[in-house]
Design goal:
609 residues, TIM Barrel, 20 strands, single chain, alpha/beta, Methane Monooxygenase Hydroxylase, Chain G, domain 1, nine-stranded mixed β-sheet
């Protein structure tokens, strides 16, 4: 539990059983019972499916939503806030139908609305609005057709708030609404001086591409006043970035936006909704700090900060407490999806071998041997740095023709012996310096895993997003191998850029879990090396605590992926047959064609249990 930080990032959903197996609960704290993930993998294998697997737990989404709404409701009561809290789900976080359906599975009481940022997302959201009566918040850049459709939903379905990020957008919204004879509901997105923190700092402050500055805001107010349309403004909206790691920055932004809200109220606007956007962080690395993949506050501290800061400003300015809206999509969806990958091979660490050195050996080899021999707890760092320079000299001498291949091999053996000793002494010393972390990476083994980083966790590659990684079993055994995780793509970027402690492989399958991949990863994934979607299982827990596989979505076949790149498998087979018919016996050609054809139907990943 401590080694892998399960109790920190797990949020009460993940745990370890007495058998040493990773478990998951669909309710925070495990009140409904825990599911051993290894049992799910075994059942999927029994059904003829091979990893990698994406496990999705729809009930966990509802639990996250209940928890978020409950925390805000508690905060409202405790502070004496006169308004209410409402949750709007931003589709950009996860547009998958199963995710949206799950949020509405029992009823729509927890979801006030859906936020859309494109015409495609608007088309997804409109049927949900029609069926459940939820509101739509239309953000992002908009052409006239986008505005036309959004305004029509106001007439036919219900509340649709068009978020304006420019003066021109306000003008076009008003003009199109006038032609339709529709009263628009307008939201104003403001650009704050307050900036976020963490990875997406540039999404706030003067540099952000969305929002009105103070001058533009006043221009919009003037336009609306002249047209007697101030009552059309229903929402004030701001967003200071995703994954805000420090609560102090949230408080500062809410205070500034609250002051703007209050001043607009005194100017005659009757704004109902105060939309704080997204930014509620998730503690991926379990450190509870302001690191880019963590957060220094709890969900309860977040809600208290928002509510109390807004209430204080409203009371000072003597204005109405507005309805608080948040778009905390990451915090709702991150925990509900876990990737399971199998380790199918290992490249071992360089084995320690004793090397005999004599006075006849080249000088560089004798110096490496001296460096190795004099290493001790107080000199290992210096010896390590010296060995790097000697390794360069060894390589240079060989390239210039001054060393035999056997001599180069002897020098390399000595070099790796130095590195292994230095790493051992650094670990004993708990030395976490940059040089020693780099050393640890050099001497670690490599575990080859059957998945694509670019498809399943693309933000790990693109922006160094951190995800927990741990075995799903053998967690009652001490892991003794220091390893790096690499995927099956033929790309040097296809590896997790950190060293993990894992178990040595034996004759039984070894599976790793990569939890918390339910936000953004589903649609960010790409088809690098033509590796496609993995096998996916939706798991539900019954009232008696048992579980069942509710739905299986099969992995992309090779044929599916080739279609994306405009290859037609039937034409490819035809071309191959015509090209080979003069080169071999007909029977041999057809046997080869049949093998070729069959593999089109296989999944894109290695079929290793």
């Amino acid at each position: 539990m401590e080694l892998y930080g399960v109790s920190c990032w797990g949020e009460g959903y993940f745990g370890i059983s007495d058998k040493g197996n990773l478990t998951i609960a669909v309710e925070r704290g495990g009140g409904s019972g825990r599911i051993e993930i290894v049992d799910l993998v075994e059942e999927l294998n029994n059904l003829g499916l091979t990893p990698p697997f994406l496990l999705r737990f729809p009930q966990l989404l509802r639990d996250r939503l209940r928890y978020l709404c409950g925390v805000f409701e508690d905060s409202l009561k405790e502070s004496g806030y006169n308004g209410v809290y409402r949750f709007v789900f931003p589709l950009k976080v996860n547009q998958r139908r199963c995710v949206i359906d799950s949020l509405f599975s029992a009823d729509a009481s927890g979801v006030f609305g859906l936020e859309v940022g494109s015409r495609s997302e608007l088309l997804i959201a409109i049927p949900y609005q029609a069926r459940y009566g939820v509101s739509l918040v239309c953000d992002g850049y908009k052409d006239d057709e986008y505005l036309l459709l959004a305004l029509k939903t106001t007439e036919l379905n219900g509340d649709t708030i068009i978020i304006a990020s420019s003066v021109d957008e306000v003008k076009r919204t008003i003009n199109i609404a006038k032609k339709l004879g529709i009263t628009p509901q307008i939201g104003i997105r403001i650009k704050l001086d307050s900036k976020g923190c963490g990875r997406w700092t540039s999404a706030s402050g003067d540099g952000t591409k969305f929002g009105l500055n103070t001058t533009e805001l006043l221009e919009v107010i003037k336009i609306l006043q002249e047209k007697r349309m101030l009552s059309y403004v229903r929402m004030l909206h701001f967003h200071i970035g995703s994954q805000i790691t420090a609560i102090s920055q949230i408080k500062k932004a809410v205070k500034e936006a609250a002051r703007i809200y209050a001043k607009l109220c005194t100017m005659g606007l009757e704004i109902i909704y105060f939309n704080i956007g997204g930014g509620l962080a998730v503690d991926y690395d379990g450190t509870k700090t302001t690191s880019q993949s963590s957060t220094n506050y709890t969900l309860r501290e977040y809600a208290n900060t928002v509510v109390q800061t807004l209430k204080t400003v409203c009371d000072e300015e003597r204005v109405v407490h507005p309805t608080i809206i948040s778009e905390s999509g990451r915090a709702i969806t991150a925990h509900h999806a876990t990737l399971i990958v199998n380790v199918f091979d290992a490249k071992k660490e360089n084995a320690h071998r004793e090397v005999s050195v004599s006075g006849n050996d080249p000088r560089v080899i004798r110096k490496l041997h001296d460096c190795y021999a004099r290493m001790n707890p107080s000199s290992y760092e210096k010896c390590y740095i010296t060995s790097l320079a000697l390794r360069e000299e060894l390589s240079s001498l060989f390239n210039e023709g001054f060393l035999k291949l056997e001599e180069r091999s002897k020098g390399e053996e000595l070099f790796w012996n130095i590195l292994q000793n230095a790493a051992r002494l650094a670990a004993r010393d708990n030395n976490r310096s940059g040089e020693m972390l780099e050393l640890n990476k050099k001497v670690s083994g490599i575990y080859l895993t059957n998945f694509s980083i670019f498809q399943s966790i693309p933000d790990s590659w693109a922006i160094d997003q951190v995800f927990p990684i741990l075995p799903i079993h053998r967690l009652n055994e001490e892991p003794t191998s220091s390893c790096r995780i690499v995927d099956i793509t033929c790309d040097s970027d296809g590896e997790i850029d950190r060293t993990l402690k894992l178990h040595r492989l034996n004759q039984t399958p070894y599976y790793l879990a990569i939890p918390m991949i339910g936000a953004y990863q589903d649609t960010l994934g790409n088809y690098h090396d033509l590796l496609g979607k993995v096998n996916e299982a939706h798991i539900t827990q019954k009232r008696d605590g048992n579980w069942e596989i509710e739905q299986i979505l099969h992995a992309d076949s090779i044929k599916d992926v080739l279609n994306i790149t405009n290859y037609d498998n039937s034409k490819m087979i035809k071309t191959l047959r015509e090209s080979l018919k003069k080169r071999a016996e007909k029977g041999e050609v057809e046997d080869f064609i049949e093998l070729y054809r069959k593999i089109f139907e296989k999944q894109t990943y290695l079929e290793i249990p």
